[in-house]
Amino acid sequence: MSIFEYNGSAVVAMVGKNCFAIASDRRLGVQLQTIATDFQRISKIHDHLFIGLSGLATDVQTLYQRLVFRHKLYQLREERDMKPETFASLVSAILYEKRFGPYLCQPVIAGLGDDNKPFICTMDSIGAKELAKDFVVSGTASESLYGACEAMFKPDMEAEELFETISQALLSSVDRDCLSGWGGHVYVVTPNEIKEKILKGRMD
Amino acid sequence: MSQASVELPPKGGFSFDLCKRNDMLTQKGLKAPSYLKTGTTIVGLIFEDGVILGADTRATEGPIVADKNCEKIHYMAPNIYCCGAGTAADTEAVTDMVSSQLRLHRYQTGRDSRVITALTLLKKHLFSYQGHVSAALVLGGVDITGPHLHTIYPHGSTDTLPFATMGSGSLAAMSVFEARYKEGLTRDEGIKLVAEAICSGIFNDLGSGSNVDICVITKGHKEYLRNYMEPNPRTYVSSKGYSFTKKTEVLLTKITPLSEKVEIVEVAGEAMEE
């Protein structure tokens, strides 16, 4: 069994018109036993920047705490929030530093940059950045997520339609994966508001 | 005075603190993760005025295509570019690092960087990690001494060649070069040959695919032709798109309005009286 299949996870982010959406499943398991059904995989770094971490849950939490620490230091020194591109480079550097003994997680970063232009990217566990213009996926359900997103994604969707698309893609993909699921957690971020929604999914 | 040490941002280089834990997990039977690789076809050739580099744009994670349009031609200096194959994180990190070192060197010497400088910095780094930093590179550029093209292998050995190919599609591309390369190619002939070599890699090698990127470097000028050719367009998109008849059921909604940041406007007025 792969190390990534120890806890199970599914994270996806999509780009819309001046907005982005990031979604994850809610299951935390130890191999085939479910331990929690409300695990937080997506965390806010600042109002316009979210990071979703899939993989080993202990590294998810440790890496999140390290990144929040570095961002707070940055805020104190620069007196402003970090841009998403800069944050992605920071995460990539922190992961590559541990190249020969890596953090066993794969981040998905989503943010609104200058001029409210949405930015998404994902990385493998050693920090190889993958910038995409449409969607990025990560986790045990990633193969199903690739297929679902390829089929359902349309460019320039508004917030409502984007929410519907990302939710349908997430729920249909986790239904085909034993290790992720138990509902969904979706954040849709526009320049004026953050909408956080909990989805009802199959509880098996 | 607190006994616990403050976690300062690190000074650079690799850190090995999680190795013991990861080894323990591997011994318990949990397989290590696979990294993003660039299966790749990367090529370079020297033509009459300079160097042309070419690369495909597919990034793979095991058998899955993770990125359909990634950039494999990395910037090193205004007159030097480098194509990378192997583990994606390693090629990106090593080319970024040497690019920064070259820039500092340019500031110190006040001269344009030479290709041989980039070559020596890269091979030193790769050799010192004995091949564990898995980056296979094709380095090309034009400096004061003329056009140069080199290949660098993950263990640190280098070759200097008039035409070169690397990556999983290197055999497919090399067959095109061996058949049709000649000295003194013009710019258009060179671009056409590089595009053909990359296409043969894209169509015949499963680890390479999507589009062709080309970079032409001549004395004092460079042209980065991103997605020069797109021989694999997506033809099966449904024009209607997906319509969801049954909406997702939502259990809980929380809306956080984001306030506009307050702008302080300086009003020219009288100074306050003390």
UniProtKB/TrEMBL annotation, chain A:
Its main location: cytoplasm. The keyword Cytoplasm applies. It is found in: Cytoplasm; Nucleus. Keywords: Cytoplasm, Nucleus, Proteasome. PROSITE patterns: PROTEASOME_BETA_1, PROTEASOME_BETA_2. GO terms for cellular component: proteasome complex. The keyword DNA damage does not apply. It comes from the Eukaryota. Belongs to the peptidase T1B family. Component of the 20S core complex of the 26S proteasome. The 26S proteasome is composed of a core protease (CP), known as the 20S proteasome, capped at one or both ends by the 19S regulatory particle (RP/PA700). The 20S proteasome core is composed of 28 subunits that are arranged in four stacked rings, resulting in a barrel-shaped structure. The two end rings are each formed by seven alpha subunits, and the two central rings are each formed by seven beta subunits. The catalytic chamber with the active sites is on the inside of the barrel. Component of the proteasome complex. Component of the proteasome, a multicatalytic proteinase complex which is characterized by its ability to cleave peptides with Arg, Phe, Tyr, Leu, and Glu adjacent to the leaving group at neutral or slightly basic pH. The proteasome has an ATP-dependent proteolytic activity. This is Proteasome subunit beta. It comes from Camelina sativa (False flax). The lineage of its organism: Eukaryota, Viridiplantae, Streptophyta, Embryophyta, Tracheophyta.
TrEMBL record, chain B:
Gene3D superfamilies: Glutamine Phosphoribosylpyrophosphate, subunit 1, domain 1. Pfam families: Proteasome (PF00227). It comes from the Eukaryota. InterPro entries: Ntn_hydrolases_N, Pept_T1A_subB, Proteasome_bsu_CS, Proteasome_sua/b, Proteasome_suB-type. It catalyses: Cleavage of peptide bonds with very broad specificity. The keyword Magnesium does not apply. CDD domains: proteasome_beta_type_7. It is found in: Cytoplasm; Nucleus. Component of the proteasome, a multicatalytic proteinase complex which is characterized by its ability to cleave peptides with Arg, Phe, Tyr, Leu, and Glu adjacent to the leaving group at neutral or slightly basic pH. The proteasome has an ATP-dependent proteolytic activity. Component of the proteasome complex. This is Proteasome subunit beta. It comes from Camelina sativa. The gene is LOC104724420.
